[in-house]
């Protein structure tokens, strides 16, 4: 076993498919540049046929990024491939990723077809993509549940048609590690010409086995793995980039390496989490808040004597600054700029001035300002330019009284005011708002999360609402939970 593992990052494609995680083009460019600095080999920048926004993002990322290969997804359909090729026109190094479902479930129910016809369509798609680019990756969707013998035939035909990479997705996250590893080995042993292509893993985490399956694939001959930052992705997510990079770094006995600059892992994780409004679970491996926090006495004693007693990874290796300074009202612009950069956010001077002003305001109401607070402030301007804004809000609640709220809204420059009661201050505020904006909206999900600690903490609110059969996601952040909740609700209305 030798060598180099290519890291194919699909945060901006599979990751971005998560409801509520959509980024605009400017934000996607920011993430793509961070991925370049992180050292990923291939960036899957989008699925151009899916929307004009996705098409445009692939174009702009192609212009903005130099080293990584830029990849665009397509189905095995000519017009998809045409558009993918067009979107990639400015990429210095480009790849078209095309493919089709190969499991009997997909063949029968999705395509109402048969194995031979699907094999022909796969070959036609690869040949068609090959007219545009040299580097064509073929995916056999739902390969995890595809019969190995048939999968080998499809993969062999795709390589003969010119595929340079063959992707074996466990689309439903069903496989066991032994099973997935054996599938890759089966292809290595049975596909004629397999040495002409790189085998890629693409694992989903529905049963919590994405990382284990990816490792099984790599140990059995795959040399590319498709991953996302923080493991984000549809349903339970994709394999987490940081986990694979650190497994290969920590296990010196595995003769595989990546080009990942591991010190960029934490800043990139923070940036993606903040831009996508997708919190990282505290116990998440490598990048979770508690990943290096030892709370038991025995562990603390051991770590103080020698970090190696309980730590298999040095937090500094993933870019966690263990001497992180805490910002206060007395911190200057330079300190704020430095902390933002450690967290992967680079701002131009006018934007930094704006964030610094907001920082001083927050520091007035909160003793210590942590990284999550400043990331929240740096992202807060995403609300600018929205049609509906909250001018002011007053909510009163307490024991033995009926909660009441009044609100002032600015709707495209026109001012409105209303008041209402409710069963709590959030309910009263939203009832007041509903008197101004009469739209049927049901709140399906509503989560409030403290950012750090203390009663003076800031909080983030994530909300999912349903309106006329469609789902919208909203986000709000403030030191005041009522304001953050109303901001999240208004964010949803603006999206409608
Ligand atoms: O999970 C999957 O099968 C995919 C393919 C489109 C590559 O994301
Ligand atoms: Zn996928």
Question: How do the strands line up in the largest sheet?
Answer: 2-3-4-5-6-7-8-9
Give the mean pLDDT. 91
Q: What is the total tally of β strands?
A: 16
- The CATH architecture of the largest domain comes to Alpha-Beta Barrel
First and last CA, distance: 53 Å
Percentage beta strand? 15-25%
CATH homologous superfamily of the largest domain, by name?
A: Aldolase class I
What would you call the shape?
Answer: globular
Which stretches are low in confidence, meaning pLDDT under 50 for 5 or more residues running? none
Domain module count: 3
Helical percentage: 25-40%
Your description of this structure?
The strands form 4 sheets. An 8-stranded parallel beta barrel has the order 2-3-4-5-6-7-8-9, surrounded by 7 helices. It has a 3-stranded antiparallel beta sheet with strand order 11-12-13. Helix 10 (265-275) packs across helix 14. Helices cover 38% and strands 21% of the residues. It is globular. It has helices at 25-38, 52-64, 78-87, 104-110, 115-130, 148-160, 177-190, 210-219, 241-250, 265-275, 297-305, 333-342, 349-365, 371-379, 425-436, 481-495; strands at 3-4, 6-9, 42-46, 69-75, 94-101, 136-141, 165-170, 198-203, 224-227, 256-257, 388-396, 404-411, 414-421, 442-450, 459-467, 470-478. It has 3 domains: 6-275, Alpha-Beta Barrel (TIM Barrel), CATH 3.20.20.70; 293-377, no CATH class; 388-495, Alpha-isopropylmalate synthase LeuA, regulatory domain (Double Stranded RNA Binding Domain, 2-Layer Sandwich). The termini are far apart. It is α/β, with parallel strands linked by helices. It contains 16 helices and 16 strands. A hairpin with a 7-residue loop joins strand 11 (388-396) and strand 12. Zinc ion binds at residues 14, 169, 171, 202, 204. 3-methyl-2-oxobutanoic acid binds next to strand 6 and strand 7.
